[in-house]
Amino acid sequence: MHVRDLLLERLEVATVKIDQTVREVLDQINASGYRCIPVVDSEDFYKGMIYKVHLIEYLYEDNGDENSKIDHLLKHQHTFITERSSFLSALIKIKSLPFLSVVENEKLVGILTHNSVESVLEDAFGLKTGGINLTLSSTEAKGMIEKLTKTLRGENIEGMFTLDNGSVLARRVVITLESGKTDAEIDKLTEKLEKGGFRILQVDKIDKVD
């Protein structure tokens, strides 16, 4: 999965220009309702991000000039991803940011939001389609996934991801199976997994989220 599948396109992104004044930018951010927005020049070349809090601190705590330019208040000038960046690299970078700017040929083409990242996790948990969510563990980390898929042969696996990667003692796996199973069928399936050497930690019926 690449970022281009998840980004918010440039035309939908609120931005400010690098040559605007502190007052103009603060007024624009207030009107947008966001706490941080990307900064570009007249040709859409990416210049960084500007935070509402830094504008306020400059004006009211540092007695700054409201007619000065914003270049000295820019952040994350070199923190961005491209449309071809992997989801994993985006996940690592976005943790401490309100969003990630997506840049191609030095120009802003969109942003990746936390909501977009969360939608991928929702999909893995089956929240978009609904289903049976099982969290299980095994003491045999090596070959665990192969063994699990063989045990679940014939089941429609909607999603799967692992936790505790790197552990040599135990690993948890979260799998989502298609909905429609009765309680008796779920009990039969968990019994089958337990006989296969897996410990069932949690079973949840996930309703579809619109």
From TrEMBL:
<dbReference type="InterPro" id="IPR017036">
    <property type="entry name" value="Lmo0553-like"/>
</dbReference>
<dbReference type="InterPro" id="IPR000644">
    <property type="entry name" value="CBS_dom"/>
</dbReference>
<dbReference type="InterPro" id="IPR046342">
    <property type="entry name" value="CBS_dom_sf"/>
</dbReference>
<dbReference type="Pfam" id="PF00571">
    <property type="entry name" value="CBS"/>
</dbReference>
<feature type="domain" description="CBS">
    <location>
        <begin position="8"/>
        <end position="66"/>
    </location>
</feature>
<keyword id="KW-0129">CBS domain</keyword>
<protein>
    <submittedName>
        <fullName>CBS domain-containing protein</fullName>
    </submittedName>
</protein>
